[in-house]
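Model the whole thing, not chain by chain.
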Amino acid sequence: MHHGVFFKKNGPFSLREVLDYCEIKITDSDKLEKKIFDISTIESLKENCITFLNSPKYKNVSINTNAIACITTLSLQNFLPSSCTKIIVKNVLFTVAKVSKLFYPEADIDQIDRSLQSADKLSHKYPDVKFGKNVLIGENVKIGKNSSIGSNTIIEHDVIIGKHCLIGSDVVIKNTITEDLVYISDGAKLGQKGFGFIPDKTKNFRFPHIGIVYLKKGVEIGTSCTIDRGSITNTSIGENTFLDNQVHIAHNVKIGKNCMIAGQVGIAGSSVVGDNVGIGGQAGISGHLKIGNNVKIGGGSGVIKDIPDNSKVMGYPSVNFRNFIKKLEA
Amino acid sequence: MHHGVFFKKNGPFSLREVLDYCEIKITDSDKLEKKIFDISTIESLKENCITFLNSPKYKNVSINTNAIACITTLSLQNFLPSSCTKIIVKNVLFTVAKVSKLFYPEADIDQIDRSLQSADKLSHKYPDVKFGKNVLIGENVKIGKNSSIGSNTIIEHDVIIGKHCLIGSDVVIKNTITEDLVYISDGAKLGQKGFGFIPDKTKNFRFPHIGIVYLKKGVEIGTSCTIDRGSITNTSIGENTFLDNQVHIAHNVKIGKNCMIAGQVGIAGSSVVGDNVGIGGQAGISGHLKIGNNVKIGGGSGVIKDIPDNSKVMGYPSVNFRNFIKKLEA
Amino acid sequence: MHHGVFFKKNGPFSLREVLDYCEIKITDSDKLEKKIFDISTIESLKENCITFLNSPKYKNVSINTNAIACITTLSLQNFLPSSCTKIIVKNVLFTVAKVSKLFYPEADIDQIDRSLQSADKLSHKYPDVKFGKNVLIGENVKIGKNSSIGSNTIIEHDVIIGKHCLIGSDVVIKNTITEDLVYISDGAKLGQKGFGFIPDKTKNFRFPHIGIVYLKKGVEIGTSCTIDRGSITNTSIGENTFLDNQVHIAHNVKIGKNCMIAGQVGIAGSSVVGDNVGIGGQAGISGHLKIGNNVKIGGGSGVIKDIPDNSKVMGYPSVNFRNFIKKLEA
C-alpha cells in the first residue's frame, strides 16, 4: 500500500476524535486518548491503526490483532482480543468509509492533478525516456530508463513506471506503480477510483479509495482497458499476465501471473484470480470470489462462485465444462 | 429539448415544402401553406409543429393533438383528430428522419467543433473554474463555479456544466447539460449521436439526433462510459444515479434517480429505467423497454421484456430471480 | 497487405538464415541458399516467400503452392508439393511468429510514433482538410479532400484516410487505410496490435502484427470502439457497415458490407462475417468462425459455431432462433 504517497493524509487522531467524527459513543475503553495513525485491513495491519472485521473468514487473524480498535458487528466481536476496543456498528463498511474519509479526505473522488506539466519542459529529468507529443507528467513521477510514453498521455503525480516500459497514446495513469517491461496500449485508463459507495437516497457516500494499482513485470494491458485502484487494499496484476482490449478490472482485484484475459472481460471488486488462468472474451466474474490456479473460463461465462484449482468452467452461471456440454446435449 | 441551441435549425417551412422534400403528395389538406417550425414527439408537442404516430400506445395523446400534420400509417390514422393532416407512409421513421434532416441538417452526424479554444485563453470567462492542461472549450459553454475540468478534456459549444462538478481527463462532452455536483471520470464520451439509421444497401440514411444528454444533480459517470444523445427526445439520468466503468447508454434512454449501474452494462435505445434500480455488471437491456422502480437486475442478465416495479430478475433472457434459481437446480 | 509500408521490414534472408534464426535444422533441401523476401499466408502468396500450413482446410491451395518453403506439421506435409521445402515443427504458429519477427522486428508491439507533428504546422500539406485543435499527424499520412479530423486526434505515419471522411476527437489511428465517406466517432482506437502471443511462463512471445485495418466506403465506427490490425492478414470492414459504441473487433476479422453491429459486441480473432449481417448488443463471436450472409444474431448471444447464410440465431451458446424460443417455453 502506498496511499500515504498518492493521497493527502490527515492525522494522527485520537480514538476519541475518530469516534466523535463517526458520531459513535464508547465510554468503557481505556484507549480513547491513544493516537491512531491510519486505517488498515486486518491482514496487513500496521502499528497504531484502527481496523475492521466484517466477516468470520478472518477470525484466525483477528483473534490475535494488535489493532487499537476494530470496527465490527455485535456477532463478530468475539473474534477479537480483549486488548482491542470494539466499535460495534450495524454497517461496518459505512463506518470504515467514514474513518477512511477522515484520514484521506481527498481519496473518495479523483480531483484533477494540477501538478501536470508538459513533458517537453521536463526532459532533463527523464533523459532516458522517449516522449511523444503533448505528454503531461505530474509531480514526483518516476519513469525507468528506456521507457516510452505515447502522445497525449497523462501520468499523474507520484506514479512510478518501470524500465523498458511502453505506454501508448491517450493513456491516463494515476495512483499506479508498474515494474519493468510493462506494456499499456492506447486509451487505457488506470488508477481511477472504483465503484464503491454507501447508497443514500439523498447523496451516496463515496468510499475513499486509498489503494493503488500495481502491475508486475511484463504485464500487458490492452487498448481502452480500465483498471480501478483499490479501496482499502491494492488492485494488482501478476507477472507476464496479458489483458486484451476493453477489459475492466474493478477495485481490489488481484490477478496472478501468466494469465490471459480476453477482450471485454469484467472482473468485479475484490475477486482474486490465481496463476495461469485463461479467461475467454466477455466473461464476467462477480465480486469477492476466489478463482484458483490454472483455471480456464470459457468466453461469455458468468462466474458467481469460487472455482477450485485446475478447473475448466463455462456457462451462465458457469459450471464445470463437462456439465455445460451435457446440459447442451440434453 | 434544447436542440435549437445545439444544432443548426432551418425553417420554418410550409407543409407543402416539407411534403415536397419527402416526395409525398397530398392534395386534400387545407394546411399546405401553414408554416411548420419544428418536428416533435406527440407527447411533448410544441405549437406549429409536425409530429408522428408510430404506435397505438400513444392514442390517448394523439386523438387530441393540435399538430398541423402527423406522419403515420394507414392503420393508425384513426387515432388522430380530423384537424390534423395525416401523412400516410409505410415507414414512419424514415419520413421522420427525412423531416428531421430538413429542419436540422447537421444533427445526423457529429461535425467537428471548430469553435473550440484553449481554456488558457478563456480563463477570464471562467474565474471560478479549475482547468487542467490542454483543455478545449467551445463557444457559449457555461461552467458553474467550483467545477474542475481535467486535462485534455473537450467541452463542445453550448454545453452547460453545473456547479461543483468534477470532470476528469480525456473526456469529450457535446450536446449535454448537467446539473450540479456531477462527477464524470476519465475517458467518458457524452452526447455523441446514437446508433440510429434507416438501413439502405447503397448508403444508410442516418437519423438526425436532435436530443441532448441531460444529467441531473449528483450523477456519477464511470471511466470510459459512452452516453449517446437522444434522437428525437433526450437521453437523461436522474439524481444521485451512479454508473460504473465502460457502461454504454444508448439514445433516448431515461434512467431514474438513485440507480446503481455496474461495469460494462449496456442499455439499448429508448428504454426507460425507474428509480432505485440496481443493475449488475455486464447486464444488457434491450431497446424500448420499461424497467420499473426498485428493480434489481442480476449481473450478466439479458433483459428483453418490461419489468414491473420491485422485481428481482436474472438470467438470459432474464426471469424472476426465484425462477432463475429453480431452473438452475432442475 | 501493406505491411511493407507500415512496418520496418528486414531481409531478404536465405532459407538457411531463416532456419538458423528459428534454430531448426534441415539439410536435405536444395533451397537453403534461396533468398526469401517475406512471409505470407498460403492463399495470398507472393513470389519468393515462405508460408505456413496449419490446417487441412487449405489443402486445395497448398498442394499447388510455389512457396520456397512451408512451415507445417508432420501430418500436414503431404498437402504440399515436392518442390516446396517442408519445415516440420510441433507449433506452427510459434515458428510463424519467429519468422515474422525476423522480417518485421518492430511489428510485435506498438512503438510510439516519433514522426507525429502538430497539424497546425502541416496545413499546407492538407489544404482541403479541416482540423480541430491539437491534432497530431505522422509522416506520409494521406487525407482525402473534404475530410475533417477532430481535436486531440492522432493519425500515425503512413495512414491513408479517404475523401469526405469525418474523424471525431480523441481518436487514435495507426496502420489503417480507409476509403471515402468513412465516419469514426470520438475515442475510437484503430490499428493497434491484436491479442496474439505464444504463451511462455517466463515471457510470452508476442506475435508480430504485420496486417492493417482496412475500412471500405461508408463504414461507420462508433464511439470508443477498438479495432485491432491483422497479424498476418488484414482486419477489414465492408462498405456501408455500421458499428455502434464500444464494439471490439479483433485481429484478422473480416466483416462484409451492409452489416449492423450493435453496442458492446465483440468479435474474436480471424472470424469472417458475411454481408447484411445484424448483430444485437453485447453478442460475442468466437474466433475462427464463418458467419454467413444475411445472418441475424440476437443481442447477448454467444456464437461458438459457424452460422450458415440466412439464419437467425440467439442464445448462449447461440442456436437457431426457433429452438431458442422452444427451449424457453419448455
